[in-house]
Write a structure and sequence with these properties.
- The protein is an alpha/beta fold and 155 residues long.
- The protein has a single domain, classed as Glutaredoxin.
- The chain has 5 helices and 9 strands.
- The strands form 3 sheets. A 5-stranded mixed beta sheet has the order 5-4-3-8-9.
- The longest helix has 12 residues.
Length: 155
């Protein structure tokens, strides 16, 4: 599991239009990696919408949000369309990124063996170093949005 002070593991994931997105694409910017268990699940909907509601404030502080789930690009595209999400939602369909960041969760919804992303928020600075990490005890717990927005905005 990565922790504060570690270099953020590099990754390349597909966005909703199936183009590649690399963490390195955001060198020089602060990046909030918002791992979420699944599109169209109540807490995930609220979390992504809260980040969207703070999109302007984060943009002013040169911070971008990348939502990461194991959902397909098509599911994420519909999720973004339904809720008007302007930041990138990325598909980690092989679960390599959730594993490299220590953000996996097994058994969502009581489905034994199903591995998805847990609710984890990581903030990476412009040099690629992890400055903040929060992990839910279980996927139903929401992060402290004010703390995250304030932390990212003050970097």
């Amino acid at each position: 599991m990565v922790k504060v002070g570690d270099a953020a593991p590099a990754f390349t994931l597909k966005t909703t239009d199936k183009s590649d997105v690399n963490l390195a694409d955001y060198h020089g910017k602060n990046v909030i990696l918002a791992f979420y268990p699944g599109a169209f699940t109540g807490v995930c909907d609220k979390e992504m919408c809260t980040f969207q509601d703070n999109f302007s404030r984060l943009s002013e502080s040169d911070t971008v949000v990348l939502g990461i789930s194991v959902d397909s690009p098509w599911a994420n595209a519909e999720f973004a369309r339904k809720y008007g999400i302007d930041f990138k939602l990325l598909s980690d369909i092989d679960r390599k990124v959730v594993e490299s960041y220590g953000a996996s969760f097994e058994g969502l919804g009581g489905i034994e063996g199903y591995i998805c992303a847990n609710r984890v928020v990581i903030i990476v600075d412009g040099e690629g170093v992890i400055q903040y990490r929060w992990e839910a005890e279980n996927p139903g717990i929401e992060p402290n949005y004010d703390e995250i927005i304030e932390f990212a905005s003050s970097m």
